Structure prediction request, 104 residues.
Amino acid sequence: MQAITSLTNPSLFSAATALPTGFHYILKKIGEYNYGNFNNDVYQIGIVREIDGTVVWGDTFHPSNQYSTAAQMIVDEANNSWSNWQQYSEADDIAMSASSIIGF
Prediction:
């Protein structure tokens, strides 16, 4: 499927929560669903850890009137992905601190 990243198109994600160095957003079309006479695209935004390519994905979404604009849709969903990612990031930070304290 198609993918756009904050590295290849930074302006698309410019209003989203800034990520620390070594991470970037990825927007991927993951499929489509049929509603009435139209096939509507379904997307997902994730945050990629560049060192190993690990991705924490946000929820799936599709264009709808719950977003005021297409640009706002990207910002809202990127921020939702950031919330998911933050949980993992904090857990990684604690695990690294524990390893250094314990000595493993």
Notes: Strands lie at 3-5, 23-35, 38-49, 54-61. The longest helix spans residues 70-102. The radius of gyration is 16 Å. The chain has one domain: 3-102.
